[in-house]
Known about the structure:
The chain has 299 residues and is of the alpha/beta class. Helices cover 21% and strands 30% of the residues. Helix 5 packs antiparallel against helix 6 (153-163).
Amino acid sequence: MTELLHITERALWESAQAAGTYEMSTRGRTLQEEGFIHCSFPHQLRGVAEMLYGTDPAPGELVVLVIDRDRLDVPVRVEEVAPGGPRFPHLYGPLAVAAVTDVRAWPRPEPRSQKERMLAGDLYLADDPELEADALRAAGLGERYNASSVTDLPARQALLRELLGEVGEGVVVRPPLSVDYGQYISIGARTFVNCGAVMLDVAPIRIGDDVQIGPNVQLLTPTHPVDPEPRRAKWEAAKPIAIGDNVWLGGGVIVCPGVTIGANTVVGAGAVVTRDLPADVVAVGNPARVVRKIGEAGE
């Protein structure tokens, strides 16, 4: 089931309830002219309303209808407001009142910034001045770190500590290193990270003490919507990654969003870890699976 949201004036909805149907096509007219706005997916609701209505309505003036697409007898087409402009689903023809599963008050403006939404694990837009500034800072520090000289290790370590959120004593990270923001990565004492690591820290990445990370390992926290429309609109989110103490990740391992790997666990080269792994096991494959416990006989 795909829900659609539709913005309408409360009085018109009450009239539609009495009549049993609701005419959806605006024929290009605005809310102020017609009394309602095109049907839209949830992530586009406020943007479409502001684009067509231009301002927030008074409390109680508008309602949002939640529509079960499976109950519709009318087509849904994705249209552009203007050539090359925003795209959103649009219903044509009469909407049966029975297709409406919920009526909600018009949502007030989101008080959180995109950065706050990102850190909470909610959908957010990365094309945001605050986040772009953070990413630019990380890119500049990362460029300097990756160009640093092996003959000046104190300077290299100073750059790493400036780039990352927390760096324990005795940590070694061989360049090149790629991050999104850097500041949401913590690495415990005596951990070794080989060259070519990719740590995309849209959500926090926590690496414990004495961890061994092979070359070209990827720790990936970002996620994207499966539904095509919000993904096209550039909404994304992230889930944190946690690597326990004394874990060994072989070369080329990929750790997916939201995964926790328990202490002492070994992950074989090239494995793709899509789910949590417990402590004290050996895991291999794509997707990674536990093949034995540490200490059991095995190759």
